[in-house]
Amino acid sequence: MSDAWFKEQIAPDRVEEDGCHSDEARVVRSYLNNKATAQEAAHSITQPILSSDDPNDNVNRLWDLLQTALLELSTAHIPPLAIQDLPDPDFTARLTATTNAAKAVSFTWKGLPGFGHLWADIYKQDAWRTSLSTTLSSCPTFDEKLRKRQELRTAHVKIANIEAHLAIANVGSIPLDWGYDAIADALERHTTVKDFEIPTAKQWIEVAGVALYAGVKEGRESWALSSRRDMGKEEEKMSLARWEFWEARMRECEEEGEVVRDAGKAALREMRSLKGE
């Protein structure tokens, strides 16, 4: 990532409600330049939060930086975040040093508290289809609409890729249910935005397919599977019959345009492989 990107993330005039601490940006740069291991970076990047008056209140600043960075990075740079393996800090000595120390005593890194909630607030928008339609309708030319659609699709699919990696790494309480939800939305609705949702389903199947298919064997229950769509597949449990229905729907993508066709073929290939075919 460019120097300009890092500069943009740092809070102006040290007002950290408007950006990250300069040391946090420096650590991200060092890690990406292979000058620090994941464990070293995790230790260093958390120090500004731990030294703040109220770590619980300030931690979202760090999560925001890391989430923004994930969107900029290639998938090869998405590691399990070593921060959640850090030991719980001991704030006992600060009990008389700060008015907020009582809150800080209960602070923990385990599970990256608040990470998943912040991600959902920013990137899991229920009305994204309406927003997409509104944005595209405002494009002045056909070529501009195509360019904008491709740009938005790339971002949409990248978010799914990140979520799938975080889910299988057990980072930030990102649930596997989001994968079932994305796939069911893509394959159990007649009103699917195919060039967005089929590639999104493909990402989940390729990245988290082993975990998702384990649900077939276990008859795993998920709120995402019981959500009402319009193909009559509402049932909480995952099953082989449902998986094979998804396969059949992916085969139908062969009649679609290049983006949907290629994603459908790749997803179907992975789905068959997971079944041992």
Summarize the structure.
By secondary structure, this protein is an all-alpha fold. It has 14 helices and no strands.
Helix/sheet category: mainly alpha
- Report the portion of residues in β strands: under 5%
Give the oligomeric state.
single chain
Report on the biggest sheet. Answer: none
3D architecture notes:
By secondary structure, this protein is mainly α. It has 14 helices and no strands. The protein has helices spanning 3-9, 22-32, 38-45, 47-50, 55-72, 101-104, 115-123, 128-137, 142-168, 177-187, 194-218, 223-226, 240-251, 258-274. The longest helix has 27 residues, at 142-168. The model has no long low-confidence stretch (mean pLDDT 86).
Helices and strands in order:
Layout: H1 3-9, H2 22-32, H3 38-45, H4 47-50, H5 55-72, H6 101-104, H7 115-123, H8 128-137, H9 142-168, H10 177-187, H11 194-218, H12 223-226, H13 240-251, H14 258-274
Helix pairs in contact: 2-3, 8-9, 9-11, 10-11, 11-13, 11-14, 13-14
